[in-house]
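Incident log, support desk, overnight shift.

02:14 A customer reports that sequence design results differ from what the structure should imply. Their input is reproduced verbatim below. On-call engineer (initials T.W.) acknowledged and began investigating.
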């Protein structure tokens, strides 16, 4: 019996080590500045020759500038990821600034490749995320200036300005390219569009309501 337990333990450890080796590895050089002109297809972006790296490859200016929030949702996200800083390639980190008009929202969305940690610089934000099926538990709170909140990777989350004026937040994400899937845009603005019968059954709505929502996106 003891021998069988030892064999099972060793097998389990082997599986864990195999999983660890299969996950993303750490960079194997000082940096890998993205080369957007490269035709090499990799999981990320190909590196340009290290000796061609310059300070501008690691630099971004303008995060002090407020985003234009005069849109339907009343918020603006200014992203600083590998598209803005080529030197972020392979480093697994990025940053965003989010500006909110009064009662503006950052609509429910997910980041398929990153956990997000957000801190409020100005104003007051209601924030929340929803756990996975079948619980779908809504975890929410109100943040004030200096408060920090974490949105776990892949979970639907949002923010809403509940203060008296504009609000500003900064968020870090543990991916050079975290991606974003805004739920309403993805569902009602898909191209080509999702069949209305599918959406009507999923949302328990009439097809004419679905058609109206699709027309908005």
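02:41 Re-run completed on a clean worker. Output:
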């Amino acid at each position: 019996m003891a021998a069988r337990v030892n064999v099972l333990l060793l097998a389990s450890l082997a599986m864990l080590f195999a999983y660890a080796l299969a996950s993303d590895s750490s960079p194997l050089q000082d940096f890998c500045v993205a080369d957007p002109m490269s035709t090499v297809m990799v999981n990320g972006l190909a590196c340009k020759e290290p000796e061609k790296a310059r300070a501008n490859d690691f630099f971004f200016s303008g995060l002090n500038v407020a985003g234009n929030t005069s849109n339907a949702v009343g918020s603006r996200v200014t992203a600083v990821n590998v598209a803005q800083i080529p030197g972020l390639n392979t480093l697994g980190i990025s940053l965003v600034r989010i500006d909110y008009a009064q009662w503006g929202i950052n609509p429910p969305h997910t980041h398929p490749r990153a956990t997000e940690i957000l801190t409020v610089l100005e104003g007051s934000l209601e924030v929340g995320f929803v756990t996975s099926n079948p619980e779908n538990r809504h975890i929410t709170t109100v943040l004030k200036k200096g408060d920090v909140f974490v949105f776990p990777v892949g979970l639907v989350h949002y923010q809403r300005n509940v203060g008296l004026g504009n609000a500003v937040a900064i968020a870090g994400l543990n991916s050079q390219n975290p991606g974003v899937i805004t739920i309403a845009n993805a569902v009602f603005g898909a191209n080509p569009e999702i069949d209305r019968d599918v959406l009507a059954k999923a949302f328990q709505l009439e097809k004419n309501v679905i058609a109206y929502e699709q027309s908005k996106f």
